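step 4 of 6: structure.
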Amino acid sequence: MHCTLVPPYILQALARQDDPVVRDAAIATLGYDKTFAVSRVIQDAARRRSPRTAAPIAPRLQRLIHDAEHGEDLPGRLVRAEGAPVSTDVAVNEAYDGLGDTWTLYEDVYGRNSIDDAGLALSGTVHFSEQYDNAYWDGEQMVFGDGDGVLFNRFTISVDVIGHELTHGVTGATADLAYKNQSGALNESISDVFGSLVKQYALKQSAAEADWLIGAGLLAEGVQGVALRSMKAPGTAYDDPRLGGKDPQPAHLRDYLRTTSDNGGVHTNSGIPNHAFYLAAVALGGNAWEQAGHVWYETVTGGALHADATFPQFAQLTVATADRLYGAAARTAVAEAWVGVGLVTS
Amino acid sequence: MSVQRVVVTRSGGFAGITITTEVDDPDEAERLTEAIRAAVDHPSGSARDDFVYEFTIVTSSTTDRIEMTGAQLPPGLRPELRSLFQRRT
């Protein structure tokens, strides 16, 4: 619960205004705890206008960064809204910038207007709980812990972590892959793929130049490792007894981990489709967000991917999508990438 | 039937790292079991990258397994689990 001096119905009316200054201020206040609701208000208003007379609404980035102040109530106190000055809190600024980088990749490259493709305000909360070694997507917003400082640094430190979490929102709004076993590992892999692409696009790195690491900088000083996952070489990101030993990700189907933990090993088996994406991106050449990214994006959002998809079904669909978008050579490159991880497509 | 020990495993999370700890003091194990059983019906949520907790509750004659998400955990239990996992390291 929170209280404002302006009643919510007035804020909702203000949020529908065309004047961006009025609208942004109202959204910032409302968006405190209702980003989806706010988005619906705006969409409804847009829908009521005649489609023939209404000018198209240009996508506009709308970020809301909150501070949980080491508690667990979400979203917490609003500390930086869109356009507000830089904070003195590094986590707030990293979250703000990372949400911006993610929004920009989706808008610039894939023409997607925020995670719901309808201009949803992006909300993130930093300083969640105490010594919290995690970041997650709660279905409506991103949540970032500060890490324990011994094994993990703050989870906003790596822009691909932010891209990863937001992509869970994109997947949830589209294919909505079930978060268990192979479909769950695909869900995780798609978040790693676009998380890495957010970083590559921000740094303007080609597929050959990119480090393909997930969570670089996240491991605290003294921990043996460079990141949490490597898409280029799954299973090599870390090796430290305090993290349970070696990075367990497989790069090939023959090493698929059968387990009941972690929803059927979704963060482990994602190494297989992760590596397939890497192989496809390198084979297609140039920038990974271009051909390879478009093939994966179209596969996830195009409507043909089932929520309970398996690895072979996903692989088959990416091959068909590559053929449709870029022709026979791209089809072959993507098919060979899947062969590289043990999956033969027809 | 009194609880003898509880084995706690936490998997998932963004890092996907699995850690295990154990409560073998019968009083502490009993108290933890009551808190877990009281939270079983809490909504599990639809979060992605949330932790997954697995509690294996061992009595003299039975072994029960209860799984819950981080979202399901009662807030009061979080600090206790945190210190349990820290004790392990």
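step 5 of 6: annotate
 - The first helix of chain A runs from residue 8 to 15.
 - Residues 12 and 41 of chain A are 7 Å apart (CA to CA).
step 6 of 6: archive
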